[in-house]
Amino acid sequence: MKNYETVIGLEVHVELATKTKIFCGCSTAFGAKPNAHTCPVCTGMPGSLPVLNKKVLEYAAAVGLALNCEITKYSKFDRKNYFYPDNPQNYQISQLYLPICRNGHIEIETESGKKTVRIHEIHMEEDAGKLVHDEWEDISLVDYNRSGVPLIEIVSEPDMRSADEVIAYLDKLRMTIQYLGASDCKLQEGSMRADVNLSVREAGAKEFGTRTEMKNLNSFKAIMRAIENETNRQIDLLESGEKVIQETRRWDDEKEYSYAMRSKEDAQDYRYFPEPDLTPVEISDEWLDQLRAAQPELREEKLARYKKQYGLPDYDAEILTASKKLADIFEQTAEICHKPKKVSNWLMGEAMRLLKEEGKEWEDISFSAENLAKLVDLADSGTVTNTVAKEVFALVFHEDIDPKSYVEEKGLKSVNDEGQLRSVVEKVIEENPQSVQDYRNGKQKAIGFLVGQTMKAMKGQANPGMVNQILKELL
Q1: R_g over Cα of the chain
Q2: SS3 assignment, position 142
Q3: pLDDT mean over 244-251
Q4: pLDDT: which is higher, 383 or 208
């Protein structure tokens, strides 16, 4: 069989974190009752007129700056005409001829080192509604809550060659946009969606093969599987002497199979023309300078600062900066208790464990920096044992309780009374002669058992350092 190379470009749709829609005042909040967030504009009623939400423009330009794009100072909106039940106007307001951002790039880490992925353009547009299929009644219903939600579409050049590179690119995009506060980029809620344009060609060939576009990809795992499946499908076609058809395919992640939806459209199929109801967007140098000055610290800068300012090892800094939410709570907590490494240990230890157990992301963290700082202080000072601290942390994690008040109310402070501890240790020694003999015969592990028995007798509230000290003295 010949050697083939995969060529991949992405169209990434990102829902922007504005409170209202792109051309009207309806709420963009996720999870409302169907058709609760609608008005004549976003449902395409005759005579209604769109008005651009300035925050959409601000977010789009900010993302463009962060992705090293040229900002178009004179841009326009266009009508993209197509007919589908969830598209109430029978057209979508988008940008084709003069998009807000062009000619950008980002750098990703690959197995062979750093690689630059070029960005062709970023354009603003409105989202369509959503079809809800009721298989029991054999009907489809339309929810227009999402209609008019502001999107940016980030169109890359076909610079990626593997699923790993695609994931690295998407992860870098997601982190950058989250750091900007422009979107939460939650794939599971549809606020970040990727369409994969993929073709294969013989290794070393200069011309691209025929591409297909795959839709319905809402997780990194689904994207990985879809790319692998489509690559193999196209290679099998070429090896058997058949041609790859340019088409849009829908990926079914449960069946791990894609099927043809329609032939792939080109721009002329949508009959684009300038949007007559919106004036062109003109951006001044002064406004662009203000936007540049307001750009936050992005991940690469934060990573370097964490190592220098907090003295964190590379591993800690990499984990803590991988999520804007996590970085924020780390910094806020470290600012309160001044123990950055201890804070890092709790976040990367117990917090990560609980998130993994419950299938949650860092963005789902709901506890406050104040309460985490109090817990770090309690554990670090020995006011509570490590066992108690972990139990209290679980309550902080789930309910954001005040750990200091809770420990006081429940009487969970460590017992540091030497006389009380010595009395319990003497009893443990008396009740476990074999372990005592094992320790005296050189089996160092035996003392661990005796410490455990003492802690059990003290209901986990004994100071383990003092218990160890007293045991060694008496033995």
Answers
A1: 29
A2: strand
A3: 91
A4: 208
**Tell me: the pLDDT tens digits for 436-475?**
777 787 777 777 777 778 777 776 676 666 667 777 777 7
194 - beta bridge partners?
Answer: 12
3-state secondary structure of 182: coil
- The helix (H) or strand (E) run that includes residue 196 is strand 192-202
CB 15 within 8 Å of CB 150: yes
153: confidence class by pLDDT, cuts 50, 70, 90: very high
- Rounded CA-CA distance 271/269 in Å is 6
CA angle 468, 470, 475 (to 5 degrees): 95
What pLDDT is stored for residue 145 in this prediction? 96
CA 3 – CA 391 distance, rounded (Å) = 56
* Interatomic CA distance for residues 326 and 321, integer angstroms: 7
Residue (of 2, 9, 86) closest to 43 by Cα position? 86
Using the predicted structure, report yes or no on whether residue 136 has a pLDDT greater than 90.
Answer: no
Cα-based distances in Å from 161 to 10, 51, 187: 12, 41, 22
Answer whether 407's CB lies under 8 Å from 396's CB: no
The residues near 149 (Cβ < 8 Å, ≥ 6 apart) are 15, 21, 22, 28, 126, 127
Count of CA atoms in the C-beta half-sphere (13 A) of 347: 36
Are 467 and 475 within 8 A, CB to CB? no
Mean pLDDT, all residues of the chain: 90
Phi, psi of 360 (to 5 degrees): -110, 165
User: CA 126, 132, 134 angle in degrees (round to 5)?
Assistant: 170
DSSP string, 385-432: -HHHHHHHHHHHHHH---HHHHHHHHT-PPB--HHHHHHHHHHHHHH-
pLDDT in tens, 98-119: 999 999 999 999 888 999 999 9
This prediction's pTM: 0.83
Distance CA 74, CA 71 (A): 9
Report how far apart, in Å, the C-alpha atoms of 13 and of each of 137, 168, 195 are: 32, 17, 8
